[in-house]
């Protein structure tokens, strides 16, 4: 029960940030917003504002901002389809953008509370390559294979990308430079290349923000690589999880500490933002695609036809979600 509650809180946070992005920019550019909804399906709670109805719906997967003229023709001067192209593009992009903002906020909280990893070594694991090569706590990594190192993320990425090669690592130890040669080993549990070192952590609000941006870019880079492999037929769908899988992962994270939960929430938020930018009907990326087409041809597409395409896409996405729920149940719970 606790796992489900935590998962619902995470889903709710992601949806609120995403939809608030659409909502705030829509209001800013003068679009009439009929409803701000958290969840899907039948309404279980609502509050009527001056113009907008704020509601919570029974299924906590997703949400939406219902704007005048978004999926239908409208003569209202405040309708979505009567606003300038740049304004509509900003409204659509604002949702995924807020997911990236949320990820940075969560990462910043984590890095500020526990500190951020530096290039200084705190611990060396016994009987692993780093110890056997003579690396000691307090050593600072300054270069790997002749390339300057400025962050822990660069260390991890370089080690993983050279898992089958011997690394030339340059360190500063007691103000003296030393060079070691190490071949990484593969950790069985994670299948990641490691050499057996743990970073020293340091607290700094400014650096936490900078490190948060670095971490987000690192995650986005990994997702882009996955998309390339997926669309190229080189990635397995086993690496993709649906709502039930996310709840399971949240439960596993909750068994450790709050930082693991916040980190997972940040990762999910980045995933949500990037997936929403894919040019798929019913997603923000699909709507953005039609707006780009409008800009290229110099006139808007038929709102009714575009609305039908997005409705079809939505139905297909719901079907895909139900399929993913089935796959998750089989995968994680063995039913």
UniProtKB/TrEMBL annotation:
**UniProt entry keywords in alphabetical sequence:** Hydrolase, Membrane, Metal-binding, Metalloprotease, Protease, Transmembrane, Transmembrane helix, Zinc
Name one matching Pfam family. PDZ_6
What InterPro entries is this protein classified in?
PDZ, PDZ_6, PDZ_sf, Pept_M50_Zn, Peptidase_M50
Does this UniProt record's set of keywords contain RNA-binding? no
Q: Where in the cell is it found?
A: Membrane
Q: Has the keyword Zinc been applied to this entry?
A: yes
Gene Ontology biological process terms from the UniProt entry: proteolysis
Stretches assigned to the PDZ domain: 120-151
Its required cofactor(s), as named, are: Zn(2+)
Q: Where are the transmembrane segments?
A: 85-114, 258-280, 308-326
Membrane protein topology class:
Multi-pass membrane protein
- State which Enzyme Commission number(s) the record gives: 3.4.24.-
Q: Which domain of life is it from?
A: Bacteria
| An example molecular function term from Gene Ontology annotations | metal ion binding
Q: Could you state one GO cellular component term attached to this entry?
A: membrane
Q: Which PANTHER family match?
A: MEMBRANE METALLOPROTEASE ARASP2, CHLOROPLASTIC-RELATED, REGULATOR OF SIGMA-E PROTEASE RSEP
Q: Which family does it belong to?
A: Belongs to the peptidase M50B family.
- Report what the protein is called: Zinc metalloprotease
Please tell me the species this chain comes from. Answer: Crassaminicella thermophila
Taxonomic lineage of this organism?
A: Bacteria, Bacillati, Bacillota, Clostridia, Eubacteriales
């Amino acid at each position: 029960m606790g796992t489900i509650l935590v998962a619902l809180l995470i889903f709710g946070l992601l949806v609120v940030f995403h939809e608030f992005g659409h909502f705030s920019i829509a209001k800013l550019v003068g679009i009439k917003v009929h409803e701000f909804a958290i969840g899907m399906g039948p309404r279980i709670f609502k509050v009527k504002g001056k113009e907008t109805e704020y509601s919570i719906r029974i299924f906590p997967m997703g949400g939406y901002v219902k704007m005048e003229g978004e999926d239908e023709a409208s003569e209202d001067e405040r309708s979505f389809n009567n606003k300038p192209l740049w304004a509509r593009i900003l409204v659509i992009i604002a949702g995924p953008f807020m997911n990236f903002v949320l990820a940075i906020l969560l990462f910043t909280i984590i890095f500020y509370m526990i500190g951020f990893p530096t290039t200084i070594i705190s611990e060396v694991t016994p009987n692993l390559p780093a110890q056997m090569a003579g690396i000691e706590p307090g050593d600072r990594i300054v270069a790997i294979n002749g390339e300057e190192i400025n962050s822990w993320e660069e260390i991890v990425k370089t080690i993983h990308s050279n898992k089958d090669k011997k690394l030339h690592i340059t360190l500063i130890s007691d103000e003296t430079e030393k060079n070691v040669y190490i071949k990484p080993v593969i950790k069985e549990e994670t299948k990641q290349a490691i050499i057996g070192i743990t970073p020293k952590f340091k607290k700094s609000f400014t650096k936490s923000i900078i490190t948060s941006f670095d971490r987000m870019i690192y995650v986005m880079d990994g997702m882009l690589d996955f998309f390339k492999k997926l669309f190229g037929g080189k990635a397995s769908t086993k690496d993709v999880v649906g709502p039930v899988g996310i709840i399971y992962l949240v439960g596993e994270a909750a068994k450790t500490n709050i930082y693991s939960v916040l980190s997972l929430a940040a990762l999910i938020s980045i995933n949500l933002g990037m997936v929403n930018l894919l040019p798929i009907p019913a997603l923000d990326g699909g709507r953005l695609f039609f707006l780009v087409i409008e800009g290229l041809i110099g006139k808007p597409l038929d709102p009714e036809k575009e609305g039908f395409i997005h409705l079809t896409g939505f139905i297909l996405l719901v079907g895909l979600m139900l399929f993913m729920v089935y796959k998750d149940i089989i995968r994680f719970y063995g039913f």
